Amino acid sequence: MSMRKIINEYKGNNVEFPDDLLDRIKQAPAKISVSGLEAAARAFMAGLLFERDDSSIFIICAREKEALAFAGDLAFFLGENDVFYYPPIDLFAVELFSFPREEELMRLALLARLRTNRKTIIVTHAGALSHKIMPLGEFNQNLRGVSLKDTLDRDELTVHLDAMGYKRVSLVEEAGEFSVRGNIIDIFPPLEKNPLRVELSADEIESIRAFDNVSQRSLHALESFTISPASQIILKSEKRTLAVQNIKRRADELSLPRGMRGNLAEALKNASADIINPVFLPLFYDEISADGKFSQNTLSSIFDYLPLGTLLILDGSFSVRQAFQEAQMNIEQMLFKTRGEDKFYLDSQGAYFNE
């Protein structure tokens, strides 16, 4: 018998273990320790808890290899569409305009899923928790629902999508892209499995259809969807101005050549949100004070995005804490190396959590 059939039988039978555990979790004021489960059995237990309860689950493993294995086991038990992996920001991508865009869109899709109240099971590892992410309030303000019969201003939407990190293209094929052709708007929000085609009659939405990103053929109709950010930087004029000011101050503090400072500032004035490395988020959301530190702690963590009542599972609490400490050491080592290379970078206080 396959494990898929086994979990389906467990879902339908009166199995005391997960139900008893759920009862204890709901009654417990703090934490519960579960031991004696090996390898895939831990993922099997998490899958049962997910099926038996309405809450989302957030699972933290010690290291990336373990998290990917845990997510793979969960996907086998629950199905690939129900399990989400939260990847870390690339520690060695320290250039302002260079980073793995695909992984950033994975993070943004998950954040959107969490903030649109969809029951979710997430797997990550300690190293992915070190990085600060865009303020929760800023993300929420830029979630935009779109429904049939809504009135839509194409020019306003184009400006909005550009500010949120969507890339305008002639043919939409990948997440984070959009196109406008007459009365047809194609858009691929990170949250969606397929790009969407919005057809207007004057300024009123007449139809919404998902389409295949390869063949461009329609798949099915929708009544509504949510446009969510395709970048952690909502690049409005005031944020761009703040970031340019911060770059100049930080470059002076690092004693970088004036030419380098000028080139960075000028490049940022013309950059689109989709090419800016999220490691440099603090430049856009906080001001560097006279002492070289960011004056306010405006950024958020992934924990701020979790819905109320989310079940947190540590896959080995001691090993997770140890791995988080190792991640802090790796960050400091990376920054120490960068200091000797005449590069623009931010100190750990601005971009990373240290506890």
Describe the 3D structure.
With 355 residues, the chain is of the alpha/beta class. It folds into three domains: 184 residues, Rossmann fold (3-Layer(aba) Sandwich); 84 residues, 2-Layer Sandwich (Penicillin-binding protein 1b fold); 49 residues, no CATH class. The protein contains 13 helices and twelve strands. The strands form three sheets. It has a six-stranded mixed beta sheet with strand order 5-6-7-8-9-10, covered by helices on one side. Strands 2-3-1-12 form a four-stranded parallel beta sheet, sandwiched between helices. Strands 4-11 form a two-stranded antiparallel ribbon. A hairpin with a 6-residue loop joins strand 9 and strand 10.
Quick take:
The chain has 355 residues and is α/β, with parallel strands linked by helices. The protein has helices spanning 3-12, 16-27, 40-52, 64-78, 101-115, 136-141, 154-163, 237-253, 258-270, 282-285, 302-305, 317-339, 348-351, and strands at 57-61, 83-85, 121-125, 144-147, 167-168, 177-181, 184-187, 196-201, 204-211, 218-222, 224-227, 311-314. The model is unreliable at 10-15 (pLDDT under 50).
